[in-house]
What does this fold into?
Amino acid sequence: MRAGDRTALPALVAAARSKWLRWVGGGHYPTSTCHVRNVVEGILAAAERGAGGSAYFLTDGPPTESRQFVTALLATQGVPAPTGSLPRPVASAAATGCDQAWRLLPLPGEPRLTRTLLLDILSTCTVSDAKARAELGYVGGVSQEDGLAELRGEYGGRTSGVHGGLCDKGGIRVEKFMPLGWINRAPAGGGRPSLRTSKGAPTPTEPTP
It folds into this structure.
């Protein structure tokens, strides 16, 4: 999530307001987060000091409970968190059923729950940034609370300093606030570092126009 977000946070808010949003297993599982300014810090540090071919994980700090983080995200928009919960076996069966139904039937829109969503977001997903801190001197100067404060400020009508929904720094243009990220140092001899988000494919950084 990020200040200026027009995709993930609005979708989360809409789900909460529609009463469809439910915790899986109570939401009591850890997750790692990484503010985009910390991602940019890590990318620049890897470009300068990273070992060729090495991968570095980046975080805002220690893992946090998913329910606690999502509740705080919704609170930045003045939306109460859901209270309902699904046992994980029930959620897994529902996700499998939704995947099959949308694949076999001409149903409109997208399923509310999928196996990918269940495995990528609604499950434990944590990483350690110890290697980045030791080898790159990565600090992660923006705390999770700092990022949440930016979202609260935007909701309250204050400007966030983000232009066009992107954060520009050091010739690198990236999204403002990400759930989880890590970077891949370009191999020796050329190429650019790539940014990875939670269990996703690498996304090459884009030069700022």
Summary: Confidence is low (pLDDT under 50) at residues 158-188, 192-209. DSSP finds seven helices and 13 strands in the chain.
